[in-house]
Amino acid sequence: MTALLVAVTFGALGLAGALLFYVLRLTRAERDRSDARVAALGEMIEEGSSSGLSGSSGLSGSSDSSGSWGSSVALSDPGSPMFGSADHPRSIGLLAPAIGVVVVGLALTGIYVWNRPATATAAAASAPLELVSLRHERQGDQLIVSGLVRNPLAGPTIARLSAVVFTFDRQGTFVNSGRAQLDVTRLGAGDESPFSISVPQATGVGRYRVSFRTDDSVAPHLDRREPPAATVPVAQVSR
User: Fold this and answer.
1) Is residue 58 a part of any domain in this protein?
2) What was the pLDDT predicted at 44?
């Protein structure tokens, strides 16, 4: 999952870089065309000025019927096609960072949505599960732990919930562990489910601890047994 998210992020960054490179090339090409238009306009002005001086003996501000001063109209005409794309380089330059921001933002949003805690898990923290009963027995070198867990009325529906047992010797050293899914695969609000876990190589076990997990997180629980005890001593059971 992490590798996939990293790949998506770098892919988005690569796409943004490619778009930025393409836009920069368009900007450069547009700038070259603009320079060419300016050069052509300069030549036209020079030609027009030469024609005006040679063809007029009166005031220099007058124009003749041949339209030799017609190019002066283009200088003040905002609709002239010669200047119709003057603002394109600026627009293209602003488009490049905008595309990059959008692509990176989408990638980061996807990562956040993928990694954010599930609603059911967050709700389970405020409405923890309830351990109703718990018992154990020995079968050879195995320890069989079983019990009943309840989802409170205020709890969300939890899917694929598992019970986990950690075993310790009488000195408190960890020995082994076991895990098994609950009999009820989807535990709705107010539902109960039995569970049974077999822990192998449990000959030297002196006590054990029970917890509950979903596929990706721990599901908090309260001990509703009488009397409650988080760590349960293993009684001697005849074989």
Assistant:
1) yes
2) 74
